[in-house]
């Protein structure tokens, strides 16, 4: 009878012991730095959740519910940072493999926060947890800018409870601590990529008439990024219409042009008006390079080549 009475008294005390606990939280900011949205490679960063509890006499379970953030979310896989009307997708995870989304019972997606168990201590207890962040690669349609999402107020519900009162973070059960504030940010810089297709004039026995061929410069720039494309004078440093293909000391003169009629030479900044300008869209923009070998004295037979450097200025 005495043992039963003691057990009954201890059980009756559990709610009051839990109420005596008090926990506080802080979270460091997540800064992804510079994001190359033209790359398919993801960018990652982490934050640290710091937990400090007092008055604990049994193990404390913590449920740090994290919502969508001020940038919102379009799916369980895509929270968003925003810059004006533009958005950049990212996500927060509870595991280093970044397969388990860190969520909240209060948002419309199925993910929940991890259950964090603090050690059994009488008095104070503390711990940390890592929040893993990833910006997905290949977001080429995102314009340059500084992107931000803020977590504060209703976006966070950091709850705690005695482990005898439950062991799940699927609901809003537990005592609520004052919400910390943290931010997630990234910077998308202007960027351009270039790819080329060679010009092959093919075989020609006697250079007594125009020989025409085309190549291509493909430019991919972040949206709204203004750029110019210039072509240098080749290995021998010729002018746009007087470049030289070489075989040893022998030469074949040729020119590169912006138009099908071969009336607009394509050169570099040293020849005013000879570059090609454009504005990025995030998609590849193909630019045709029109080549012409004019009539000239025919050198000895062989393969004649030249290398032209393509420069994108943005």
From TrEMBL:
Residues 1-20 form the signal peptide. InterPro entries: Spore_coat_component, Spore_coat_U/FanG. The keyword Signal applies. Pfam families: SCPU (PF05229). Residues 16-151, 181-311 form the Spore coat protein U/FanG domain. It comes from the Bacteria. The keyword Cytoplasm does not apply. Coiled coil: none annotated. Keywords: Signal. This is Spore coat U domain-containing protein. It comes from Mesorhizobium neociceri.
């Amino acid at each position: 009878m005495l043992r039963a009475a003691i057990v009954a008294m201890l059980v009756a005390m559990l709610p009051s012991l839990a109420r005596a606990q008090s926990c506080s939280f802080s979270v460091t900011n997540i800064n992804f730095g510079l994001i190359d949205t033209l790359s398919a490679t993801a960018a990652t960063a982490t934050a640290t959740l710091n937990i400090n509890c007092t008055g604990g006499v049994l193990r404390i379970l913590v449920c740090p519910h994290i919502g969508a953030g001020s940038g919102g979310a379009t799916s369980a896989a895509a929270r968003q940072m925003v810059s004006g009307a533009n958005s950049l997708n990212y996500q927060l995870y509870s595991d280093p493999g970044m397969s388990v989304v860190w969520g909240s019972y209060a948002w419309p997606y199925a993910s929940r926060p991890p259950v964090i168990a603090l050690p059994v201590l009488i008095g104070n207890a503390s711990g940390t947890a890592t929040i893993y962040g990833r910006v997905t690669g290949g977001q080429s349609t995102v314009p340059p800018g500084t992107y931000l999402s803020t977590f504060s107020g209703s976006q966070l519900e950091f709850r705690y409870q005695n482990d005898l009162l439950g062991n799940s973070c699927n609901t809003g059960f537990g005592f609520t601590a004052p919400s910390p504030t943290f931010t997630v940010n990234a910077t998308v810089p202007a960027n351009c990529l270039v790819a080329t297709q060679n010009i092959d004039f093919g075989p020609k026995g006697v250079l007594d008439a125009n020989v025409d061929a085309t190549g291509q410069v493909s430019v991919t720039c972040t949206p709204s990024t203004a750029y110019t494309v210039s072509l240098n004078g080749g290995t021998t440093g010729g002018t746009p219409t007087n470049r030289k293909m070489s075989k040893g000391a022998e030469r074949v003169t040729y020119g590169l042009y912006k138009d099908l009629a071969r009336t607009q030479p394509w050169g570099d900044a040293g020849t005013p008006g000879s570059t090609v300008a454009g504005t990025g869209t995030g998609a590849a923009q193909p630019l045709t390079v029109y080549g012409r070998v004019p009539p000239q004295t025919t050198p000895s037979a062989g393969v004649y080549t030249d290398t032209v450097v393509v420069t994108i200025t943005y």
